[in-house]
Amino acid sequence: MNRLERRIYNIVRFSPLIKKWITTIYQKLFSLYPQPEMKTDFDIIIKENFFYGFHDKCPWSPDNRLLLAHHFSDPLKMPAADDEVKVGYFTAPDYKSFHQIGNTKTWNWQMGAMLQWVGKSKLIIFNDFVKKHLRSVIVNTNGEIIQRLDRPIATLNAGGEWAISHSFIRLRRYARAYCYLHGEEKSAMDPCPSDDGLYLIKLESGAVRLLFTIDELARIRPNDKMADCYHYLTHPLFAPNGKRFIFFHRWVQTNNQIWTRMFSSNRDGSDLHLFDTSGVVTHLAWKDDDTILAYAYKKDVGDHYYLLKDKSDQFEILGKQYFSSDGHPQFSPDRKYLITDTYPDRSHRQRLLLFDLSKNHKRELLSVHIPMRYTGDPRCDFHPRWDRTG
Fold first, then answer.
1. Alpha-carbon distances of 211 from 64, 166, 198, 222, 361, rounded to whole Å
2. How far apart are CA 382 and CA 377, in angstroms?
3. Minimal CA–CA distance to 288: which of 317, 304, 312, 308?
4. What is the pLDDT of residues 85-142, one digit of tens each?
5. 385 φ/ψ sector (left φ>0, alpha ψ -120 to 50, else beta)
């Protein structure tokens, strides 16, 4: 954003309908100017009708030879209840042939079926709908079922021993791009339930434990914006060492304004910490076991990529002069670089960006013009990720 765009954005940012109306008109006007579809200095390999999922997971196997993916055959539209995707992987070095290991109707464009590797093994986990219940299933690379778990998973620790789960059914009302269309839960009708929340799953035994309820979290330093709102939890992510994790607590006002708080917790639910942000946090990544990168808003400071010290109010701004809008960040395995993307700008162009942390230098790797029909949902976020070698 330039300064004028930022000034207008700050005026309308908490009025969702007005913000959407202004953004759409503004982008339509600028998109009338001719421009190249793609600009890059690199060879781009395109896999038609394949996608992976969210930016916080690595699709490459521990030995970096297999690349997980979802395959879809329907046109690009929001998933319907009967829409099914294939799950499987490509094999290095050419990644030409796709090996299917299963099917699932439990998926969305943003996060897929939560398809991911189980620790350092050759086992794969993804979410499924079994006997009228949302579940997760672990399979080997031949697609043979090794284990079924009683809840869908959202994230695994790096060692593959633990998973965090939350309700994907609650997301249907206000976060349809992240929800599943199958299953029912009585608690989903409750705006702030005392019997649903965030769950810890021990993969070895399948044991499930409710760590804290949505009602319990909403009672922690509540504010007047929470009155009569619908609450849900999302975006859990383990620290690299798996001892702590972070997650979002979100609630929605009657004008559809979504507010977000970010918590961190020990794996067992103890030592809960609420970060000092001003109701706006979007995307995140762990820099190390004690530092989280989050695109967030702090009153009197602004919107930035913040490096937040866990269990404290300490922070610093990353790349203040280089980043003026939100994206999907991920650190390289050696933590020397950051890769992220942008949302469509005034000309409806999205960019892929590389940031050198030691040199404090940003480089644009790719710029693509996104058709206006991919505004809202479904859309085409880049969700960049590193392979295991970086």
1. 34, 10, 6, 19, 41
2. 14
3. 308
4. 999 999 999 899 999 999 999 999 999 999 999 999 999 999 999 988 999 999 999 9
5. beta
